[in-house]
Write a structure and sequence with these properties.
27% of the residues lie in helices and 25% in strands. By secondary structure, it is an alpha/beta fold. The chain is globular, with a radius of gyration of 26 Å.
């Protein structure tokens, strides 16, 4: 009998080595390479090499589907994040920090689908059936027809699904707990995670049932296990939220059947997650209008406009190297805005500590927040509060010019709906359809600084 081949696999990226080493050359992580046997693994064993291929049926591209291509869960925020509903035969990977509410969201989605007549099977690999039932009772979902199964063996799960008939949705919580007889490594390793995910995805494609996989995340916030699993599935969703805040955001980072920049906003309560139809009111709920250094940014998350408050604090520094602390925004982008303010506008911030925070723990990824950040910084430095009824959006170039951004009309409509009467935008975005909001156009960042300085001077004269 041939001796099984021993390989060493990185548990972070899936890179394969012939011998052990401390650092992975592919991803740069330390102490993530683990010894695994390739016998019985994916494409392993002599039986695999002698298997002959079987011809598959060729079908025309044009045709009619017997069923609706998407399943509406009944939870509007979840349907928004998935692009209008869960696609039949798709595999979705949901990641998030422990205790963030992944199991709560999926239990509520499973019960909502079951109430709409769908056949749902919930597979728990981390909790017993009694524990899942306790959560279902707390979420008022115990009266639905969701079927439970506490199992971690992939072959047993697939056999049960085959005997039970094709379900509409299968929830597997979580992919790291599954193990297969075809792999000899321990559960949670790269080989086991990849084997289990591959088997469940094959089942989804062959049967037409949608499969939702729950994945743990690392300290860096990425889904644990090999990155190849994210490439295998059809959609990857991250469930985000700060421990000190009661809201949760379901963010789409990959979706083969819809946009990849949509978000769903939820609020965590005693009876589970509640949908937030208007996130702007949530993020602006505790706003202090008279405090300097606060600017309201009209942003976009996919097709949804979201208004958030950007808070800045500029204080003299006693350190040789002033501090730059950022929460909710890109620190490199802040450094660029500070450099443009100093080089193009004459705003001296080199001897000041700068702290920037996006209120509510929200994360901004688009460069359209440059004007709002600059306005908050200048307001904090001058000590004059910005107008409470004004919003800001626009990109700043290295030359100091204010560049237009997309979806300006949607941003202004959202601001007008929430009671704002003025907006500061780049001059190229000022030629917009007439609305009830006053638009102030700026060509350069210097125009914005001059306007804030003029407002500060008039305020000092009145005092």
């Amino acid at each position: 009998m041939a001796k099984p081949k021993i390989t060493f696999i990185c548990q972070a990226c899936g890179a394969v080595y012939n011998r052990w080493q401390g650092k992975c050359d592919a991803c740069g992580e330390w102490n993530t390479i683990v010894e695994e046997s390739s016998a019985g693994g994916v494409a392993g064993g002599p039986q695999r090499s002698r298997r002959k291929g079987r011809p598959s049926a060729l079908l025309p591209l044009a045709g009619e589907n017997e069923e609706a291509p998407r399943i509406a869960s009944g939870i509007a925020e979840l349907d928004r994040a998935t692009g209008g509903g869960i696609v039949r035969g798709s595999a979705i990977l949901i990641g998030g920090d422990p205790g963030i509410g992944k199991s709560t969201l999926l239990m509520q989605a499973a019960s909502a689908l079951a109430r709409r007549g769908a056949k749902v099977i919930y597979v728990s690999g981390e909790e017993a059936v009694a524990q899942v039932r306790l959560r279902a009772e707390r979420l008022k979902a115990a009266d639905t027809s969701v079927q439970l199964m506490a199992e971690t063996n992939v072959e047993d799960i697939l056999a049960t699904l085959a005997d039970a008939g094709r379900p509409d949705l299968v929830v597997v919580d979580s992919i790291q707990t599954l193990w297969s007889d075809t792999a000899e490594s321990a559960p949670g390793t790269v080989t086991q995670v990849r084997t289990g995910a591959q088997a469940l995805i094959r089942f989804a494609k062959a049967s037409g049932a949608a499969v939702v996989l729950v994945g743990h995340v690392t300290k860096e916030g990425q889904i644990a296990g090999p990155r190849v699993v994210e490439h295998m599935v059809d959609a990857v969703l991250y469930f985000e939220g700060e421990g000190g805040h009661h809201y949760r955001i379901l963010r789409t980072v990959k979706n083969r059947f819809g946009p990849t920049d949509e978000i769903g906003v939820f609020e965590m309560g005693d009876t589970g997650l509640r949908e937030v139809a208007n996130p702007s009111e949530l993020f602006l709920g505790e706003r202090n209008d008279k405090a300097p250094g606060a600017a309201v940014f009209a942003g976009m998350e996919g097709t949804r406009p979201v208004l958030v408050e950007i808070q800045a604090l500029v204080a003299p520094s006693s350190l040789g190297t002033p501090r730059r602390a950022v929460v909710g925004w890109d620190s490199a982008r802040l450094a660029m805005v500070l450099a443009v303010l100093e080089a193009r506008c004459g705003v001296r911030l080199g001897s000041h500590d700068v702290y920037l925070n996006v209120a509510g723990g929200f994360r901004i990824s688009e460069p359209a927040a440059d004007l709002a950040v600059a306005a908050a910084l200048v307001s904090s430095l001058s000590g004059a509060a910005l107008p409470a009824d004004s919003v800001y959006f626009g990109e700043v170039s290295l030359s100091g010019a204010a560049r237009p951004v997309a979806h300006a009309v949607q941003r202004l409509r959202e601001a007008e709906k929430l009671g704002f009467s003025a907006a500061t935008v780049p001059s190229a975005s000022a030629d917009l359809p007439k609305s009830g909001i006053s638009v102030r156009a700026v060509e350069t960042l210097g125009d914005l600084v001059a306007h804030i300085a003029a407002g500060s001077a008039s305020l000092s004269e009145e005092d």
